[in-house]
Give the backbone structure.
Amino acid sequence: MSDTLTPKQRQVLEAIRRFQQEKGYPPTVRELAELFGQLSTAGMHKILMTLQEKGVLSRREGTKSRSYHIIGEEPGEGPAGRARPCPIIGEVVAGMPELALEEREGDLYLDSDWVGKEDIFLLRVRGHSMIDADIRDGDLLAVQITQSCRNGEIIIALLDDEATVKRFYKEKDRVRLQPENQTMQPIYIPIDDPGFRIIGKVKGLLRRYH
Amino acid sequence: MSDTLTPKQRQVLEAIRRFQQEKGYPPTVRELAELFGQLSTAGMHKILMTLQEKGVLSRREGTKSRSYHIIGEEPGEGPAGRARPCPIIGEVVAGMPELALEEREGDLYLDSDWVGKEDIFLLRVRGHSMIDADIRDGDLLAVQITQSCRNGEIIIALLDDEATVKRFYKEKDRVRLQPENQTMQPIYIPIDDPGFRIIGKVKGLLRRYH
DNA sequence: GACAAAAGCAAACATATGTGCTATATTTAG
DNA sequence: CTAAATATAGCACATATGTTTGCTTTTGTC
């Protein structure tokens, strides 16, 4: 089908794609016409009709504004629908869960298919205390903010205003925090310890090689 | 600033965010009004004005259609601009670099700020041969397709139609492939070995916890 | 050159969308 | 309770955008 397109029609199609990509919303007929330096909208409109007849362009219902889109690249089914910004936190600071934005290093867009749709932030790992879990210094941990976690999950917790990464095990009347580094001993905490607070659980890990 | 928002105003803001997220373009005033079951656009319009005064909402120039957007979440600066789809390959198969799409498990959107803008695919790690590099069975490796790589980089290579993950070192007249697992010996390959081919180098790692 | 398809311009028109009024209910703060 | 702020409806109007008509120019083909 697309092999029957004229050069001009390809250019228009490509312009629509780029506009949606860069701006984040579809163009109007006039905006397209201006992009090609045309003084009238009629010509562009005719091209758009042809592209629809040829089955490569579509639009939402009726004659709504900014409704043209390339078939197979519907806005919302693309990156915008799955990617979500996640703040990178250099350090977990007491005073959460306001997520101390002072420590914010920036955002990273993550695929919600991979990391889920719940509240997430990225925590940069410092030190080698998790080396037995194959977590390295400098890695980013995707942390889902939650207070409920199950046995064996890796959690981020505040212990007397100090943040730690540990495996979580709930025992009779206490909580056992198991370090992954075998040279370190587990920590036991009474369930009602006021200095203990769970920030969230680790859902993913990101590492970058240079 | 945002602490002075009324519940209704928060809801509207959240609706704008979700609309842009799901549809891929900003809503009209009437579409917003309908979302809240209102018969008039006047109320919604007033709320939008208030949100602008409070500095959380903005719009493109003039009075264009579908131009409202949340400040800090401008469409185009968001997911669509940085996220890029990367195919997940279950196994590196001989016959690359056509990237045997049969083995394709799907796509994952990755942030180009993190993974770069070059050709990338994701390779699922099988086995524990890279455990000393803290790479686990099931991890995803972000592989940049290239033939040029420097000493010490982790590469994906084809050796007699078999894919391996190794550290790359170029020596005088041969290439040394160093496994990360200390129980395994390095492999030496003449530079002109026809059965040897570099697929690409590892730029990142993704792990998911359950 | 004749011809048809594609592309362009100008001007109008129809619909979609943004904005501005008035009036009335509902909520909130004091 | 009262007053202010907020939210709603209904209507009118201005601008933005989509669509159509008629004509001219360009382009490629026979």
